[in-house]
Records
---
Amino acid sequence: MRAADKLEVAQMGFTPYEALVRSIMLSGGESWAMLVRGKVAAIGGIMALGLLTRAGVPWILTGNEVIRHPKEFWRLSKASLAVFRTRYALLTNVVDSRYETSIRWLRRLGFKVEMNDDITIGGVPFYRVTLRGAL
């Protein structure tokens, strides 16, 4: 896991292992490994917020392969997001305000980043990110 991902999950009170296992378990079978040239670049998934809301919480934990192969990571990210958008009316999550690389990536994918201070975890601001689905 990249250092910035480790920092973000630590801020939420988890070790990298705990964050990965918890995220996979909460995803109810909707998780995957993103392979780039045969190596794990990231592990991600989506958690449904509820049947009535038709909202999902996408998540991803990245490794150093995303740095080594940014074009492949971008292509796979867009493909994964396209699938999520066909199944959910709204995609939403939070991102550590210090994680500038992730914020840029989310914006480039089309997410709206709400930069306000109403969400703090351990005194650190987290930004809500949202993207409307295709439903």
Note: The chain has one domain: 3-132.
---
Amino acid sequence: MLGSLFKTERRAVQSTAWGSWDGTEPTWAGVNVDTKSSLQLLTVYGCNRFICDGISTLPTDTFRQNGDVKTEIPKPGWLEEPAPGLDPVAWHGQTLTSLLLAGDSFWFKDYADGSLSSAVPLDPTKVGVSRTRGRKVFQVEGEQFDSNRIEHIPALMFPGSDRGLSPVEAAKQTVGAGMAVTEFSSRFWSQGGTFGGVIEDPGSLDAAKAKETARIWARLHSGKSKAHLPGVLQGGATWKPTAVSPEQAQFLETRGFTSAEIASFLFLIDASEFSLFMGQGGSITYANLEQRNARKVQVTFLPWMVRIERTISRLLPKPRYYKFNVEGLLRGDMKTRYESYKLGIEAKFLVPNEARELEDMPPLDGGDVVTDINPQTKARSVERDEHGRILRVVG
């Protein structure tokens, strides 16, 4: 299913052609940028990995909603191994990489005995999307499928578009500038860390001798192994640089600023996570780890988690739904957590075993009941299921 993409029918009301972007048109910096070449820029790769690893390694749960009561239930088999040879971590990672770079993620759905058995991630650049009689259809390797076989998760979309907007495409000029600066700095150091210049000779040189002199100088002084070798000129000739110094060019500062822009605006990652800053006063300070992680979940992770949760929940029998468990990320340090539990228990809205469950500790005998010293106040207790999980608080 991952072969070349065939030409697709264009929807009459399609207002944009974002889905046809292939990165063949050079950016203003003269660099070609597409979803895969963008990963050559370390910032894009690092941000993609930051989000993919952060979300795909979270625990996940499946629940059944019955009125106000939600009950955790076992996951269906296909969520334990969503695709042949892919565990949930790798599967979520592929889905997120497609969304983060291409703006779309596609799963090819297989069924066994009428039930979903797998959802294989497809290369989003090899899937065509169009409309037939108003219904969305997909072209994969020359075959056409409908939504019964292809599950589509789009990222940000323009009105009238059938595909998500590729974040890399939207920011291709900034990404291209970053790639150009990286290439420039790499070539600069490979040439011995010096800019170009001219050899001035007080005498007269014909074209052939001038060309030969330049060739000899380049051969003797280009390349890392010849960096900083002393030059010898005869006949009063002198070497004069023709370009500004690295400090004047500030290409290192430009590289850092571009990386911070990509992290902050393209991926909504706090640039200080990578020790990058947007200039003076551009860094964010946090009182504790809990605040940093809360920002990470709410701003960076949540938009992508919700897209995946809603898509998987649609594939589950009603009224079941799928959730990422972010409690571990939102927990504070040990001292803060224990102080919070103590306050909750003393205020009678938390029982000891609820606190122990949050810490993955086994329940204690008598830990499900808190009796208030006020005889007019009813005791609180916890109702558990057959597996010992808390269902609800009573009393």
Note: Residues 333-394 form one domain.
